[in-house]
Amino acid sequence: xxxxxxxPRLFADTSSIPEIERLxxxxxxxxxxxxxxxxxxxxxxxNPFGHYExxxxxxxxMPISIQLLDEDVPTLIQRAKSFAAISPNIVVKVPMxxxxxxxxxxxxxxxxxxKTNVTGLMKAEQLLLALxxxxxxxxxxxxxxxxxxxxxxxxxxxxxxRSRHLIEAFNFNSEIITGSIRGQKDVYxxxxxxxxxxTVPPSVIWEMIHxxxxxxxxxQSQRDWEKLTQKx
Length: 232
Ligand code: E4P
Description:
Oligomer: single chain
Number of helices: 11
Bound molecules: erythose-4-phosphate
Helix content: 40-55%
């Protein structure tokens, strides 16, 4: 029997400040996720760290995930601390490296009380290990990658449901962020499967908002009203 679900929160999966500002006005966005690929699209100054500071300053009331790079464990820890020092709303995104570095880093950051988001998860078994590190209440966030799971031949909704079951059954505090969203149906499926949070590129939010028949209806209403009032 499936757990009773709650509606997910939406995060903006972008590092574009103007795009986040637009979405924030809609009252839909409760957090931001970035990764080096997204930052590379926005920051052409060669100073991504400056971009992170600007993001944190622009949206101090939202959790902002910033991803670590592919480095050795001591460097990862050092970098994680420098990210966390930018602002209290920064969440350090720890990649699930195939050689276990991610778990070592998670263990140390958890002990130091740094808020983390374990990223690049493709299956519930990886997520289970992230939950178990340090026998804590789990990292703040665990990120499953919807379309990358599908690209790899997996079933993203099944992995979300299995992961949510683990979290509920064993009383972890971690929240599942579903990322790698490419279309509006992915948001719906991630919601039904049990994601706590869906992080969505702005283009997909606008795709969800728009329907050509809604536009047609509004235009027709406006035209007919204007015709009517001209007669008065
Ligand atoms: C979010 O946390 C992820 O970094 C992002 O959604 C990955 O998306 P992609 O698979 O489209 O690169």
